[in-house]
Amino acid sequence: MIETLLQLSSGAASGSTTGTGNSYSFIILMVVLFVVMYFVTIRPQRKRQKEEQEMRNSLEIGDEIITIGGIVGKVVTIREEDLVIETGADRTKMKIQRWAVNTNKTKMEQHRKEVEAAKEAAKKKKEEKAAAKGKAVKGKTEKAEESSEKKEEK
């Protein structure tokens, strides 16, 4: 791709016979490259930032959190831009900025349990479906055996 860009730019600079065609294709190529870069890097980063902001805004008193510095604590007080957390066995209180929260362990555990419950429900449903299918196959085989026995009797 880089080679193509270099060829297009050198062709336009050398003044080839199709100079306008090359310059249009170069512009189109640059636009396509920008669109690809947007969807590969910028959009996922914005999505991640939005999720982090939602997590920070949904903090509640009693949530166990981990800060960007690695401090683990329980939220005691919530204000506009800062939190007070308790940490350690001696319940030391620390005031931190809301943006310094990295992970909400309480919400993460709840989400993990919900995912496990959903997987378990899907597994049970799949097993029930397989069992029902097995009964249907078993019923068909029994009917086939009965009909073959009747034919043998005749």
From TrEMBL:
<dbReference type="Pfam" id="PF02699">
    <property type="entry name" value="YajC"/>
</dbReference>
<feature type="transmembrane region" description="Helical">
    <location>
        <begin position="23"/>
        <end position="40"/>
    </location>
</feature>
<keyword id="KW-0813">Transport</keyword>
<feature type="compositionally biased region" description="Basic and acidic residues">
    <location>
        <begin position="106"/>
        <end position="131"/>
    </location>
</feature>
<keyword id="KW-1133">Transmembrane helix</keyword>
<keyword id="KW-0812">Transmembrane</keyword>
<keyword id="KW-0653">Protein transport</keyword>
<feature type="compositionally biased region" description="Basic and acidic residues">
    <location>
        <begin position="139"/>
        <end position="154"/>
    </location>
</feature>
<comment type="similarity">
    <text>Belongs to the YajC family.</text>
</comment>
<feature type="region of interest" description="Disordered">
    <location>
        <begin position="104"/>
        <end position="154"/>
    </location>
</feature>
<dbReference type="GO" id="GO:0015031">
    <property type="term" value="P:protein transport"/>
</dbReference>
<protein>
    <submittedName>
        <fullName>Preprotein translocase subunit YajC</fullName>
    </submittedName>
</protein>
<keyword id="KW-0472">Membrane</keyword>
<keyword id="KW-1003">Cell membrane</keyword>
<dbReference type="GO" id="GO:0005886">
    <property type="term" value="C:plasma membrane"/>
</dbReference>
<keyword id="KW-0811">Translocation</keyword>
<dbReference type="InterPro" id="IPR003849">
    <property type="entry name" value="Preprotein_translocase_YajC"/>
</dbReference>
